[in-house]
Design a protein that fits this description.
This protein is α+β, with helices and mostly antiparallel strands and 149 residues long. The protein has one domain (32-148): YjbQ-like (Jelly Rolls, Sandwich), CATH 2.60.120.460. It is built from 3 helices and 8 strands; from the N terminus they run ββαββααββββ. It has helices at 36-46, 73-85, 99-108, and strands at 18-25, 31-34, 51-56, 62-68, 111-117, 120-121, 127-133, 139-148. The strands form 2 sheets. The protein has a 5-stranded antiparallel sheet, with helices on one face. A 3-stranded antiparallel sheet has the order 2-7-4. The radius of gyration is 20 Å and the shape is elongated.
Length: 149
């Protein structure tokens, strides 16, 4: 005779998601800091094999970017491109000396969502994750939450 429990699927225990806060030091007014390994370390320590990694920077003059991480010249090109969109010396309404930083951060955004598979971030071959500083040098916070499927 079969037990009443036979055939019933029991939920798999999951690691509850936890919010991690990392400190990221920037050393220049404009800097594109590769934080890919920092994020991967948090994912690895979370023991999540498959799920989602949420990233958030709670600052109005910093942003997050996923882009090529093999050629630093791209960061200079990106900086020059953003300078064309929001020059530092323009006569802005919000004129406290860093309005350009607010505008650049607004264009790139302060959050990203990454997939996790087999305990690894899913990124393209040449991709990395960057914290973009536009009003440094500063100590910035990066919030990371890894959630299992």
């Amino acid at each position: 005779m079969e037990s009443p429990e036979a055939g019933r699927v029991l939920p798999t225990p999951r690691t509850p998601p936890r919010l991690h806060t990392a400190q990221v030091e920037t050393h220049a007014r404009v800097e594109f800091k590769d934080i890919t390994q920092l994020i991967q370390k948090v994912v690895t320590e979370s023991s999540v094999q498959n799920g989602t990694c949420f990233l958030f920077v709670p600052h109005t003059t910093a942003a997050l970017l996923i882009n090529e991480n093999s050629d630093p010249a791209l960061h200079r090109d990106l900086d020059n491109f953003l300078k064309l969109l929001a020059p530092r010396d323009r006569d802005y309404q919000h004129n406290d000396g860093n309005c350009d930083a607010h505008l650049k951060a607004a264009v790139l955004g302060n959050s990203k969502l990454l997939l996790v598979e087999n305990g690894r971030l899913i990124l393209g071959r040449w991709q990395g994750v960057f914290m973009c500083e536009f009003d440094g040098p500063r100590r910035r916070e990066l919030r990371i939450k890894v959630v299992a499927d």
